[in-house]
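[Q] Does anyone have a clean structure-token version of this?
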Amino acid sequence: MTNREIAKQLNISPAALSLILNNKPGISEAKRKDVLQRLEEMGYSHLIKTNQPQPVISNNLCFVVYKRHGKILNQHPFFLLMMESIENRASDYGYYILVTTIDNKTPMDIQFNKLKEMNAKGFIIFATEMFDDDIYNFEKLNVPFVAIDNDFTYLDINTISINNQMGTYQAINHLYQMGHRKIGYLKSSVFICSFGERTRGYMDALALFNLTLDEKYIYKLPYTEEGCYQEFKQLLDNGIELPTAFVTDDDTIAAGVMKAMAEKNINIPRDVSIVGFNDRPSCQISSPKLTSVNVPRHSFGSESVDSLIRLIKKSENATHNYRCLKLRVGTQLIQRESVYNLSDNK
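[A] Here you go.
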């Protein structure tokens, strides 16, 4: 048979067969082994080139977007904003980036078998929606990995995450300096670890400034702009008491609440000030422009590659006696138009 006919019988492309026969990269190790075994069974082992005894070395890293439920990542796929910095940094080390998604639509064993077939040297896991139990399958891969946007505080793994408590402190500090003493919180009804840290940061910051934590100023809202708008509009219709300012889990929540307030002729910032979190591009075009806590996504991406490369080098040198490294990326408050200076009225 011709190579084309052999490829058809193996259910692969002629190009893939050529890569395998010539021991060239571009095919996963699992697929390569399977095809080589079948070629021997078919009596075509003589076609396999033996003048390249060195094993094929992967120069791929894999970026895995883990969607536990998609309620956060489907709303704002902000991992896309990091991709350029991740790809550029990987290129500096001579690696390419493969991208894939893990979700709950397909059995986990099937998805993780596909990860194995990628023959990646390491994985960067976008872990925003993950919980501790979700890490177990990655540990079974026996390949270096780094988790980002989640600290996994109690697990012995390398992580890079936002300093969320620093961010909420910066928001509270700014409001306090502007004369605000009644500061509420707009929480997401969808829980992720980052939101939990921001809520704790809010409570800790209030305590640092000797401010009262008043439960009636804390509202749990849907994590969609439309959902926040509808629910907060209903709360306003019910005559809730408002603080002088709110901090939020995310800019999305702030946007929905601002829309509801505008319909009720509540002036932002004169009547109520608002500080968002994440500094999404929409903050610069909202009315008023939203003061928000900025997360430097570009440094986030490059740090994740640096951390993974260090792990890969340690694994190649069989140096396993090391401690995990957990990095926190600092935040910066970007001041715009959504905070009113109450001190000017004194």
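[Q] Thanks! Anything notable?
[A] Residues 75 and 224 are 7 Å apart (CA to CA).
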